[in-house]
């Protein structure tokens, strides 16, 4: 299983981190070991003092594909949910300053949270998809797929220009504005529309 991730896919989020707004999708990957096991609490790794949460929509791939053009998302993805892409922001900043890859800050063990899957239907895709991330009972991120710089179909086209996708692969589609620090004891809840799809506690 491959985990593909899109960075800086919302203008407001790019601005909040002082990054340029990209003209093509920013793609990075996480290994399968980055996926937190269901029912497991999250532990802040010892190598960071500034861990950030990033809530985002996640697609599940159902069909092999390469060099996709003008595709219907439903042909290649069968489900959608909300997840968290945890980022060691302090480590990422140091790596970026040196022009080095982000993997240490993004792809460490348990760095990817995934919610319960919701079948992806044509009706879901015909309107903006709303999602939110709650921290300790308060909304910290409020997302809307219509605000994506690169929509879902464009993301699939871009990924498959370079990589073959296979059934079971995951695609994290980017985070909206509102990222922030993760502290010991925090509880995160992800919502797709009005439905809660995950709840994860950070170990004290």
Topology (elements, then pairings):
Layout: E1 3-7, H1 11-16, E2 26-30, E3 51-53, E4 55-61, H2 73-76, E5 77-85, E6 87-88, H3 89-97, H4 103-106, E7 112-114, E8 118-119, H5 122-125, E9 130-135, E10 138-144, H6 152-162, E11 170-172, E12 180-181, E13 187-192, E14 195-201
Parallel strand pairs: 1-11
Antiparallel strand pairs: 1-2, 3-6, 3-12, 4-5, 4-11, 5-7, 5-8, 9-10, 9-13, 13-14
CATH level-4 homologous superfamily: Fumarylacetoacetase-like, C-terminal domain
CATH topology: Fumarylacetoacetate hydrolase, domain 2
Q: Which blocks of ≥5 consecutive residues have pLDDT under 50?
A: none
Count every beta strand, where a strand is a DSSP E run of 2 or more residues.
Answer: 14
Rough shape?
globular
What oligomeric state do these chains adopt? single chain
Q: Determine the number of helices (DSSP H or I, runs of at least 4 residues).
A: 6
Structural class: alpha+beta
Instruction: Indicate the CATH architecture.
Output: Alpha-Beta Complex
